[in-house]
Amino acid sequence: MNATPQCYDYEVGSPGWSFFYSNEALPDDRLGIAQLSNRLLIPPDGLPFDGQPNGEFLGYTWMALPFTDATTGQPPTGDQSWTCFLSTANFKGPIAYYIPETWSKIGRIFNYPYIYSRGLDARPGVAGGGAMEINTLPRFDAHDADGTVYSKIPRLQFPVDDKGQAVLVQDVTYYSKSALYDAFKQWRDGRGPECSGAFNVEGAWNCSLTTKTTRYQQAGINISGVEQVFDTKVFDDTCWGVEWFDSTISPDGVFPQYYKQVNDKRIAVAASDVPTDTGLIAKEFRLADKGEPYTSPTTGAWSEPGPTRGPFEVELGDGSIVTYSWYRFVDQPSFQQYHWSNDKKARLQALVEKIHANWPIDRDYMAPPSRGSLVTLDPALIVTPPEGLEVGYVPIVTAQKAR
């Protein structure tokens, strides 16, 4: 759930940690995500899937919801809590949201009032495009007997159908406030019927997509030939991905692994065209080492007022051990920096208790996928609240380490 509230000074990726950079929990005043689900653990290292997925879809939506009212104090803050909904085979529903003050407090910190009412606490979200981003890759370079440079990158494989097509994103949908915000606010204020959390299709809009050929480089050198193997493609108005049409260089679904330096470019070549004296075919990339444990403080927002019950441990399918404790919703660490009134906290707590009591994890909140099947989350992520904590309490991950 990565975001950069203060540009790239820091990142927020889970209820306690950044997206990367450090295994230490974020400082209390940089926490930004409030855990909403009382059924799903959110480890800092991400949500692992069950087994070895091969083309199943993960449904996700960001929906702005009014968990709290807009305020005019310092800082003035809008009422939009951007809430992450997931749709998987074994879990559906909201998991967490960005506290609106995460965006507005930046104006106070930097004495920059211009930003007020211009952050995601108040402005609509804009999704202008989508992409699969890979920051950097390791690479082997080698020379043949004539001094020509060849290179090898790790194997990157996509699940493809019998047409050589790999769907990356489908059912792209934009939502207005009539999709959920309006009904949610009326339910919150006791002015409307029970809100199921399901998105109203009358507030949804399906856009038409376009795409363009991607450019690639190695060490600042332009790559050529990948577009002869596959290219991006829009398969229908709300679905896009990549399509393979030449398997002589690389099998369908596999990104070309080998390249040859030709003048000022690197050209994609088949493995059979790589000279044996380069030794590249036999070269293997070293697997990543186990990371350092994620740890949370035992003081500050994590301990005052602190958890109600715990700690507990669970082992995930990725081989990590996750430690978590049950916090009363408004007592979780992310909220403690704001010193809200007892009345505001009580109203928010009551709203979350209604959600926990009325929004199950097997309801279709967003529409099911128009094609294919949903992926399954690691079942170990799904927990059951202890007796007496069935509503109004959330499992906050406090540590994660390798087995």
Any overview of this molecule?
This protein is mainly beta and 403 residues long. The chain folds into two domains: 28-128 and 291-402, no CATH class; 140-171 and 211-278, no CATH class. Helices cover 8% and strands 25% of the residues. The chain is built from three helices and 19 strands.
Q: Quick gist of this model?
A:
This protein has 403 residues and is mainly beta. Helix content is 8%, strand content 25%. The protein contains three helices and 19 strands.
Q: Provide the spatial order of strands within the biggest beta sheet.
A: 5-6-14-15-11-10
Amount of beta strand:
25-35%
Low-confidence stretches: none
Number of helices: 3
Residue share in helices?
A: under 10%
Number of strands: 19
Topology, please?
Layout: E1 33-35, E2 59-65, E3 81-87, E4 92-98, H1 101-109, E5 140-143, E6 149-152, E7 165-170, E8 173-175, H2 181-188, E9 204-206, E10 217-218, E11 221-224, E12 230-236, E13 239-244, E14 258-262, E15 265-269, E16 294-295, E17 309-315, E18 320-328, H3 342-358, E19 393-402
Parallel strand pairs: 11-15
Antiparallel strand pairs: 1-4, 2-3, 3-4, 5-6, 6-14, 7-13, 8-9, 10-11, 12-13, 14-15, 16-19, 17-18, 18-19
